[in-house]
Design goal:
The chain is an alpha/beta fold. It has one domain (2-143, 232-309): Alpha/Beta hydrolase fold, catalytic domain (Rossmann fold). It has eleven helices and eight strands. It has helices at 47-55, 69-72, 86-104, 117-129, 146-163, 170-177, 198-206, 216-229, 232-235, 259-270, 294-309; strands spanning 2-9, 15-22, 31-36, 58-63, 110-115, 135-139, 244-249, 276-281. It has an eight-stranded mixed sheet with strand order 1-2-4-3-5-6-7-8, with helices on both faces. Helix 1 links the parallel strand 3 and strand 4. Helix 3 (86-104) crosses helix 4, helix 4 crosses helix 8 (216-229) and helix 5 (146-163) runs antiparallel to helix 6 (170-177).
Amino acid sequence: MITENFSFISEDDTAVYVYKWRPDKGLAPKGVVQIAHGMAETAARYERLAGVLTDRGYIVYANDHRGHGKTAGDLANVGILARDNGFERMVADMHRLSLGAIEENPDQPLFLMGHSMGSFATQRYLMLHGQKLKGAILSGSNGRDRLLHQLGLLVAVSEVRKNGREAKSPRMDKLSFGNYNKRFKPNRTSFDWLSRDPAEVDKYLADPYCGDIFSAGFYHDFLKGLITIGKDENVARVPKDLPIYLFSGDQDPVGAQGKGVIKLKEAYHKQGLTDLTLKLYPGGRHEMLNELNRDQVMQDLLDWIEKVNRL
């Protein structure tokens, strides 16, 4: 696997850092996979998956979202997406990276995978730019919960008014993540809900760019984004023939222990999408790519990509 790194300038002049992994010389490329990582982590955590994909001839692009990793730069900037419309700007960054990947690889099909926060950004991307894709993958995602998102937005608005957009919000952090660990007592760490593999949880905890408390402005913009992607008229904009692969652990609290992922698949089906695949892994938690059975998870993902790529 050959690693390259570069940055591009976003529509609001943010320098967005990108990891690019490509197959070793002599292995002809047969597709591009773009990855949108989750909240409070970085794109570097997907290097293992990139190794599996590049071994089979796929070129992989993954940017650190604004407010994350090397795009944030200084740790003080982690959790601050933008002065306004942070969620939509994050989606626009993903689209700009797609355009660059297409320009560099004009004859290759493009797949987009989003995990957790990245999966919700991917849901929005599919509404705006889904026609560019050969297939889409949603990891650790969920369907809409209109009342919960509306209530959360009210609290986020209050936090922004009280403390400002860039102030960290322990209140929103507790409301959004505070209950995730309860199902996994006795708890060894505050992030046991991520994976059953303690070594993977410890690696997450040791990374200074992972697990931070995010800003009130982040939650405000993210919740607005969740409300947007939950509207039927927006879901209806996703191309009807786009293949979508949804996978999650059936103990993932983000996906309501699988129920939210099933709800999301049903919402797509209701709008006429015809190529939907759902995989729920028994006992799996939030990060299936870092779970005890991650080799099987990555093989299942690769098998789906290969199948769609042959269509």
